[in-house]
Design brief:
The chain has seven helices and eight strands, in the order ααββαβββαβαββαα. It is of the alpha+beta class.
Length: about 190
Amino acid sequence: TLVETSESGDIVDLLNEYIDGVTNVIFDNGGTVMKIVGDAVHAIFGAPVEDPQHAARAVQCALAVDAFATRFREARNAAGIPLGVTRIGLNSGPAIIGNFGGSHFFDYTAYGDVVNIAARLERANKIVGTRICVGESVAEQIPGFAGRPVGTLLLKGKTQAIRCLEPLTPEAAATPAAEAYRQAFALLEA
């Protein structure tokens, strides 16, 4: 609706400012921007150079992107430009990363089930009411992961459900509300 009702120059400026902010956060956190598709930014951590801290860096980056995107959305909404929330999906595992294409075009990108799951987790945010959704494969690599469980989700195209979590800042994870949520979730699971 925003694109349909706005001047193309305004959309270009808005999109460039948003993408510039998101990509700066990714680079600041040691990520590699793989591609930009519309208003979506695909990034990886731990490649092309292996990084044993890739999961922690990705979560730290996701929280920083969320903070930037929230400020960006609130400022634009206050100016009468209706933007929705930015949703982020994170997953960890082996992927095929390299140049793909043909003789006339190639693209440095990542392929594999782990990439598909990250995309499905991004979409799952809309259903489960979160802005950041990570697979357990990410959380289990981070000692003292700060967050809360979302549930075990059967994602589109998958035959096995995946346990998902919402990362939180250490301050947010330590609140009485977050602890009450984790206790209630444990009771529901039991």
